[in-house]
Prior knowledge:
The chain is of the alpha/beta class. The chain has 14 helices and 15 strands.
Amino acid sequence: xxxxxxxxxxxxxxxxxxxxxxxxxxxxxxxTCGPKVAEFERSFASYVGAxxxxxxxxxxxxxxxxxxxxxxxxxDEVITTPLTFAATANCALYRGGIPVFADIDPRTYNxxxxxxxxxxxxxxxxxxxxxxxxxxxxxEAIHRLAQRHGLTVIEDAAHALGATYDGRRxxxxxxxTIFSFHPVKQITTGEGGMVTTNAQELYExxxxxxxxxxxxxxxxxxxxxxxxxxxxxxxFLGYNYRLTDIQAALGISQLKKADRFLARRRVIVSQYNxxxxxxxxxxxxxxxxxxxxxxxxYVIQLAENAPDSRDKLCRHLKDSGxxxxxxxxxxxxxxxYAGLSTRHQAPPGQSPDRRWLQEYPETERYYRxxxxxxxxxxxxxxxxxxxxxxxxxxx
Length: 395
Ligand SMILES: *Cc1c(COP(=O)(O)O)cnc(C)c1O
């Protein structure tokens, strides 16, 4: 491997058989929503242990569809973590709902169930836990809260394909679970996403939502007096969120490699953990009880003594040809969400930092100290050594 090659923080792994699978579809009769989409859905549902899977055009579309199926509507509140990508919160906004942020657990970086409870109101409709970096959330506590307050749980498992909680794969454990197949994620279809569920009623809503709220199923028609063979009905406002067969063929081929990719991620993580064990200034990631991470990201934190050392390390790595990154800027800090709640707003003349520190002390602490190092299955041992040496050299 070229020593000077820039090492990104994440990268897809496409092999010749993936390319052949896509080429085969291009030579076939179906380019979209044909047999490959159905096959991808079946194999995906079976892999994660869910009854149903619906393929859509992105993880963001999957979140939107799940929010629709969960019945989130105008004014409904949805509790999620601020330590996530914007799409997680936006699915509530797409439905006219309001994202409400809870604080994180300082050990797992996942949403802290104890911080969810005081934020539940009469308007709360759903909880969207995110399995941050691939580490499953405390689902037992989250399900207990959901049950007690009558809330729907939508797991954002965009990071967590292959992760297990209490010995079971993420994907069949809550009302709805969403996945993303963006190139930085465990497997890719270029763009793409999936929603899984065990409930037939939710499954049927998802299918229609993906395609204009339209049904060709005569058993569901509200105007059964229209018997013509060309008849269909649009029953609610849906979208074109379909995945193509071209993408699904890539997904089928990639899914077969998910376990191999994850095994390689685990090896790299243990190499990092071992190397950084000698550097007390670095806090390495842990797996929680009952959780086996899918290791989407390798996030370190710097022990607190030097406030700007994280940014200096980030710059040093960039100068060494290594992409370090920050996942994520807490969502409440972005202008879009800062305007949504008084929780995010400081009294006149006061900087909002103090308000944020009061509301989200653990997220703020994390935000000052965290850094994501490169982690992807196609990384070579030499790549890993280069990252480790660059970090060691800095300290
Ligand atoms: C990637 C990601 C999404 C969105 O997925 P896309 O396929 O990029 O639309 C949603 N949530 C989280 C946590 C993600 O990392």
